[in-house]
Amino acid sequence: MATDKERMLRGDLYRGNDPELVAERRACHALTARYNDTEPDAETERQEILGKLLGACGAGTVIMPPFRCDYGYPTRIGSNTFLNYDTVILDCAPVTIGNDVAIGPRAQILTPLHPMEDHELRRAGWESAAPITIGDNTWLGGGVIVCAGVTIGENSVIGAGSVVTRDIPSRVFAAGNPCRVIRDL
């Protein structure tokens, strides 16, 4: 029988209160607390923490504290990417952020899903997650929310405050709630 962690990572229903997952979240939160408490000139220390925290973090990538995530290891960030203050990544499924991406302050990248139709499953604490992919050279404005299962194509721009509920193609400007394509770039 699969563990809750295995079910979580493959997108099946799992229980977030599983002791292994709780321990992993606590370890992640300890690392993010250390990261967020670093001095402004402590770039080397922050890079060392990110190396322990994330699945991958490319050269030249900067994440401004405070930063929050659930597990860390499912998140892979490319090179020369910038995450501004207060970025939240709920990474219960893989999160892939490409190279040269700019993410504005208070952005949220949210992989968890909760049963909508089955109220008893939701009450019992069951959930699932779906991966998120953000392509190279994409810019997410401040306060953007990217929902579970979404892929944003390369070279696209998402307007500030948008809620991205479905895939966005490459080379477009998209905005709104729900986010929709406004024009080609």
UniProtKB/TrEMBL annotation:
Gene3D superfamilies assigned? Hexapeptide repeat proteins (2.160.10.10)
Q: Does the keyword Hydrolase apply?
A: no
The keyword Transferase belongs to this UniProt entry's keyword annotation = yes
The record's GO molecular-function terms, alphabetically, read:
acyltransferase activity
Enzyme Commission number(s): 2.3.1.-
**SMART domains, alphabetized:** Mac (SM01266)
One Pfam family name is Mac
Q: What class of enzyme is it?
A: transferase
Q: Which UniProt keywords apply?
A: Acyltransferase, Repeat, Transferase
Domain Maltose/galactoside acetyltransferase intervals:
5-59
Cited InterPro entries: Hexapep, Hexapep_transf_CS, Hexapeptide_acetyltransf, Mac_dom, Trimer_LpxA-like_sf
| Similarity annotation | Belongs to the transferase hexapeptide repeat family.
The protein's name is Sugar O-acetyltransferase
Origin species: Nocardia fusca
Q: What is the lineage of its organism?
A: Bacteria, Bacillati, Actinomycetota, Actinomycetes, Mycobacteriales
